[in-house]
Design goal:
The chain is globular. The protein is about 45% helix and about 15% strand. A five-stranded mixed β-sheet has the order 1-3-2-5-4. It has about 180 residues and is of the alpha/beta class. Helix 1 crosses helix 3. The longest helix is centred in the N-terminal third of the chain and has 25 residues.
């Protein structure tokens, strides 16, 4: 990844935020956004399908171990905006990622709080070093509103294609994102 100047990073982040807001508004208005994503060649589609399936299996395993409440829902509001920003940051070259992530699809893991993309191997090594539990201050800080909310912050994860995105969310942001407590 090319090293960006501080000025260029700020410009790209501002552009990412603006674009994310526009995409969220279009999505909430019911616009069909499929035209934004290029057609994928068949040989890559097979790999993508396998990566998506592996990510789903791992998310189910994590959900079982951590007793996550499994839901199929499409987030709205602040969580949807955070997801759009996260995805656009990757496209704008603003995300740190492990060296194993290139142009071919593979299962990827990330957290909203540190925004680093990791392959399955690097994610497992990071969890082994870090542990599943974050430091208390970060564990009880909502990844959306960034407020410290002890006792009012839940761990959650969702799948976007081959990406498992983990986050912590307070009850207020959870409800504002279209979920019921």
């Amino acid at each position: 990844m090319a090293v960006l100047s501080s000025r260029e990073r700020k410009r790209r982040r501002r552009q990412v935020r603006e674009t994310a807001r526009e995409l969220l508004a279009a999505q909430e208005a019911g616009a069909d956004l499929r035209h934004l994503f290029p057609e994928i060649p068949l040989f890559i589609q097979d790999q993508l399908d396998a990566a998506v399936a592996q990510t789903g299996e791992r998310l189910d395993q994590v959900g079982t171990v951590l007793n996550y409440n499994k839901r199929r829902a499409y987030p709205k509001g602040p969580l949807a905006l955070a997801i759009w920003e996260f995805l656009l940051e990757g496209m704008a070259g603003l995300q740190e990622k492990c060296n194993h992530i290139g142009n071919m699809p593979l299962p990827m893991f990330a957290s909203l709080w540190n925004r680093k993309l990791r392959c399955a191997k690097c994610a497992a090594e990071w969890i082994e070093r870090q542990g599943l539990l974050l430091p208390e201050r970060e564990r009880f800080t909502c990844d959306l509103c960034r407020r410290y909310r002890p006792g009012d912050c839940r761990d959650a994860a969702l799948q976007i294609g081959p990406l498992q995105l983990s986050y912590g969310i307070c009850d207020a942001c959870f409800v504002a994102s279209g979920f019921e407590l």
